[in-house]
Amino acid sequence: MHIRTWNAPSAGIVPSSWLSARHPAIAQSKPHVRILVALPLSILLGVTLLVPRAPTAAERDPPAQRCRAVVDQQITQVGLPQSRIERIQISRRRQDIRDSQRTVGFDGWVRLNDCRGSLVVGMDRGCNVQQVYVQGMCEVPGVETFD
Q1: From CA 52, how far away is CA 82, in angstroms rounded?
Q2: What is Dmax (Cα atoms) for the chain?
Q3: CA 36 to mean position of chain CA atoms
Q4: Beta bridge partners of 136
Q5: For residue 56, what is the DSSP state?
């Protein structure tokens, strides 16, 4: 007995050769039964394989993430307790408005939760610290404040 199968790779149907080798009872059944059995499997595999995962922060901007470690070191060096930190953000510093694609450095903004301001760690493109200061209405002992 010859069984005709409908192979439609674009629809995600599992080929009959795959079924016959693994599930002889299904392979000998009628084509619509094979489709009903194979379709949920192919949909499950297709959905699992085709859904892209979201890129991590390090994948989106690796240089900025390297600079994050430098900012963490500076926080420790100036003695800023974690309880004062609301959030940390790394931003790229661009050359000027006309040439906005060229990164000349990074700024680590450590937003403080007990005052209106931030500890700023200015770095070059290699994440080497150029300056550390406080901006706004905050004070960090041993760090210069700019308004």
Answers
A1: 35
A2: 89
A3: 37
A4: 117
A5: P
Encoded tokens for 101? 């694609």
Query: Can you give the residue range of the structural domain that contains 28?
Result: 9-50
The answer to whether 133 and 143 have CB atoms below 8 angstroms apart is: yes
Residue recorded with tokens 């890129």: 55
Separation between Cα atoms, residue 137 and residue 126, nearest integer Å: 30
Contact call for residues 85 and 113 (beta carbons, < 8 A): yes
The answer for 79, left when phi > 0, alpha when psi is -120 to 50, beta otherwise, is: left
pTM, two decimal places: 0.57
Residue-wise pLDDT tens digits, 5-53: 444 444 445 555 555 555 555 555 555 555 555 556 556 555 555 556 6
137 and 70 co-located in one domain: yes
Q: Nearest 5°: phi and psi at 134?
A: -110, 135
| Total tally of structural domains belonging to the chain | 2
